């Protein structure tokens, strides 16, 4: 795992080191998309074209992976009756959750119309809220299911863990409050989620009996 993380970091650092050494255009002028200009200065149009193709391929891969990851999450929620049953459907040939994919695609097409900075802020706020829920679940499970066997264990006592999470949680709370009260789409999405949960009247038993296959 550590080796993988280091290799991923090197894929970012090595091109940066090479570009800094060559320093054309000057690093003080770098902006979004500057790698193409740097590649053109180092290896003419050929290298610049390869950089653009690689960027396109990596962005497309990240987009497709994220789309299907979210789609399978929606399908899993539907299988456990936490989302509309229509999202349970799978493609007979590829076994993919096509209804969930289309639903995710519709949301993406709507978000395309928003300002990019607003989308980033909203995504950061929702991600921060999600991380706070993970922190809360992490601490709660340490209390209620301390005896469970885990593939790995985070060291430290619960008070020490709470202290370690204090700064990050405070930052997440600031992000959520700042964005939710200044950006209407983020507030609408959050309120819609609460309204749906209130309408479905989810019970504690549903969350205690979650299944990976919906059975």
UniProtKB/TrEMBL annotation:
- Where is this protein chiefly located? membrane
- Where are its TM segments located? 34-53, 98-116, 128-145, 157-177, 183-199
User: What is one GO cellular-component annotation here?
Assistant: plasma membrane
- Point out the signal peptide segment: 1-18
What GO molecular function terms would the record report? polyamine transmembrane transporter activity
Q: Which UniProt keywords apply?
A: Cell membrane, Membrane, Signal, Transmembrane, Transmembrane helix, Transport
Q: Where is it located?
A: Cell membrane
Q: Which residues form a coiled coil?
A: none
Q: What is the similarity comment for this entry?
A: Belongs to the amino acid-polyamine-organocation (APC) superfamily. Polyamine:cation symporter (PHS) (TC 2.A.3.12) family.
Protein's name according to its UniProt entry: Amino acid permease
Identify the species of origin.
Phytophthora infestans
């Amino acid at each position: 795992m550590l080796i993988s993380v280091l290799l991923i970091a090197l894929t970012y650092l090595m091109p940066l080191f090479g570009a800094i050494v060559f320093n054309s255009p000057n690093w003080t002028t770098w902006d979004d998309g500057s790698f193409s200009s740097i590649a053109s200065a180092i290896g003419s149009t050929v290298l610049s074209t390869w950089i653009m193709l690689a960027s396109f391929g990596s962005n497309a891969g990240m987009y497709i992976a994220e789309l299907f990851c979210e789609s399978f999450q929606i399908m899993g929620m539907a299988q456990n009756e936490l989302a509309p049953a229509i999202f349970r459907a799978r493609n007979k040939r590829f076994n993919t959750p096509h209804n969930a994919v289309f639903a995710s695609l519709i949301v993406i097409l709507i978000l395309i119309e928003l300002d990019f900075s607003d989308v980033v802020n909203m995504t950061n706020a929702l991600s921060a809220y999600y991380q706070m829920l993970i922190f809360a679940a992490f601490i709660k499970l340490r209390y209620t299911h301390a005896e469970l066997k885990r593939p790995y264990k985070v060291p430290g006592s619960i008070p020490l863990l709470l202290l370690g999470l204090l700064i990050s949680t405070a930052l997440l709370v600031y992000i959520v409050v700042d964005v939710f009260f200044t950006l209407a789409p983020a507030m609408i999405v959050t309120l819609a989620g609460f309204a749906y949960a209130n309408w479905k009247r989810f019970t504690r038993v549903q969350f205690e009996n979650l299944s990976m296959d919906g059975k």
